[in-house]
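Q: Can I borrow your eye for a moment on a structure tokenisation matter? Would you mind producing a protein record, from residues through to fold? Write it directly below this note and I will take it from there.
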Amino acid sequence: MEDIVLNGTSFKPANVTLKGIVDTGASVIVGPTELITPITSKFPSTIDCNNLNQYPDLTFTIGGDQYTLTPEFYILKITILGQSQCTLGIKGMEFPPHLAGSIILGDSFIKAYYTHFDIGNNKVGFAKAK
């Protein structure tokens, strides 16, 4: 992974190589706190479910190709008993040193991009999901 861009601003760390981990068991995008906090700080503490188009696109550059998520993909809308609440689907956590620079691309990414796991050739491919 070469870059993460939000609203035209690159969040690529200067001295760490980014590594993407596609994880069907994760529902959100997760990365090291020191990398994710500057991204999440660009959002208000309360996400407005009724106006998702006010939030910027989030773009990952992987293998030279850009994969853009609109807010409908990285903001989770939870509805219980007719009441909706939205939360940012980008989370920071402490990673062990050997995973420094890793970004877990969970369901928020996978529902936007079909993911093909080619185990035989040790590759992962993406295509825009319908």
Remarks:
- The longest strand covers residues 75-80.
